[in-house]
Amino acid sequence: MLRSYKGKSPRLAQGVYIDESSVLVGDIEVGEDSSVWPLVAARGDVNYIKIGKRTNVQDGSVLHLTRKSASVPDGYPLIIGDDVTVGHKVMLHGCKLGNRILVGMGAIIMDNVTVGDDVIIGGGALVPPNKNLESGFLYVGSPVKQARPLTEQELQFLKVSAQNYVELKDEYLEES
Predict the structure, then answer these.
(1) At the top level of its lineage, which domain of life is listed (predicted)?
(2) Where are the domains of the chain?
């Protein structure tokens, strides 16, 4: 489940849960109390992946990045902030997610996208390359559009969702 690539191996902070059916390869850092659930594929091979604290990546998601090239000298790593919930079957590719974000099931977020803090991205959304999603909003559709500001209840839910997965991964860790 954890594999080296060109001398770089995944690094896991304290309290991390990685399901045995997931595969993490290469230059990947997973922050404290985060979780990676069944059948996630994460390849830190041609750049790096950084997952923050208390973040969960749910079943069947794919995490990858963009290699360095003449047109993109640094490439695009994949950076995921703290308290992020990445729903089932999400694809994240060479993008940067802030803190307290919910990415709905089946969403696709492409190269060089930046997502601010406190954002909900609806299920099935497509965020095309080079977009910047402003903090504090709900985004939906394919291609994604800003729908409305988040309510106070939704802002609180972002923290609750992340905490729920911290508690769930702790239960899984107790059983292993």
Answers:
(1) Bacteria
(2) 2-175
Q: Looking at the domain 2-175, which fold is it?
A: UDP N-Acetylglucosamine Acyltransferase; domain 1 (2.160.10)
State if pTM tops 0.90. yes
What's the rounded Cα separation, in Å, for the pair 66 and 110? 10
Secondary structure class of 14 (helix, strand, coil) = coil
- Nearest in space to 169 (alpha carbons), one of 58, 66, 4: 58
| DSSP codes, 92-115 | EES-EE-SSEEE-TT-EE-TT-EE
Q: How far apart are CA 65 and CA 100, in angstroms?
A: 21
| Tens of pLDDT, residue by residue, the chain (176 residues) | 899 999 999 999 999 999 999 999 999 999 999 999 999 999 999 999 999 999 999 999 999 999 999 999 999 999 999 999 999 999 999 999 999 999 999 999 999 999 999 999 999 999 999 999 999 999 999 999 999 999 999 999 999 999 999 999 999 999 98
